[in-house]
Specification:
By secondary structure, this protein is an alpha+beta fold. The chain contains four helices and twelve strands; from the N terminus they run αβαβαβββββαβββββ.
Length: 272
């Protein structure tokens, strides 16, 4: 038990240094052709500290051009507005788009969202096969200075043994996407590391992960009892993007509180 606690503390100390090493890399768009993308599983309202976690999430995400959020909750009975809308308001982003398996108007909805400060051209939503797993994807096409870009947010099956389900979900997602050649970024909580067989379709030659294998030890927060695994990803189409910089965000506690039970991932992508 003592060794496990020491290992956990050592990992958290190492994680605390990672964002500082990358602080020179801004998430947001800079020179022509740059796109700042971030993804964060926000852990809905778990832990009972949502009012404290909200500003920490906003601080971690600030500066990205487009943000994917997973485990977003709105719950009328709890008096909880849509968390993505709340975060967007904190950041000053006018565009918020949400998807959930629950129907519009349901008292409780749980799903994924995309926030952006860029002009939005179109939005599409999908319930992923198999429908029994209640997973969704949302695609937002944004206008950049180099033309339109599609950004997709999703959250896949969580069980370690569910690689075949994740493969089916990814196959359904990719088949649903437009085939008009618009550059594509797919991001979210994939609940699996890069070497998971279920994520094979997200590898080369088509996609490049923003976080290369071994770049960080975990995107799961060990302070919340998680074993270290990198399961949150940003995948950019290799033909259209180079990864200029990537890092984890939200990996440091403030007054003993973390933004989430995950760490976020932020990347600066450059158009080819």
């Amino acid at each position: 038990m003592l060794k496990a606690e020491l290992d956990r503390r050592a990992l958290l100390a190492a994680m605390a240094g990672l964002p500082l090493a990358a602080c020179a890399h801004r998430m947001g768009a800079g020179s022509t052709g740059e796109l700042g993308v971030a993804t964060f599983n926000i852990w809905h309202d778990a832990g009972g500290q949502w009012p404290k976690r909200l500003p920490l999430l906003a601080a971690a995400l600030r500066g990205a051009d487009i943000i994917a959020l997973e485990e977003v909750l709105e719950d009328r009975d709890k008096g909880l507005p849509n968390q993505a809308v709340t975060i967007a308001r904190e950041l000053g982003y006018a565009q918020v788009h949400f998807v959930a398996p629950d129907p519009e108007g349901a008292p409780k909805r749980f799903g994924n969202a995309i926030l952006t400060r860029l002009p939005v051209i179109e939005v599409a939503r999908r319930k992923l096969e198999p429908l029994s797993d209640y997973r969704t994807a949302i695609r937002v096409r944004v206008r950049t200075d180099r033309g339109p870009v599609d950004v997709v947010a999703t959250h896949l099956a969580w069980q370690p043994e569910a690689a075949a389900v994740r493969a089916q979900q990814i196959a359904d997602l990719l088949a649903w996407l437009p085939t008009d050649g618009t550059p594509l970024v797919v991001t979210g909580d994939f609940n699996a590391p890069l070497d998971d067989p279920g994520l094979a379709a997200m590898g080369p030659p088509r996609f490049t992960p923003a976080l290369a294998p071994g770049a960080v030890p975990t995107t799961l927060n060990p302070a919340r009892g998680h074993a270290p695994r990198v399961i949150d990803h940003i995948f950019a189409e290799s033909a259209h993007f180079a990864v200029a910089a990537a890092r984890i965000i939200g990996s440091e506690a403030v007054d003993g509180e973390y933004p989430s039970d995950h760490f976020g991932v932020a990347a600066r992508l450059t158009r080819r």
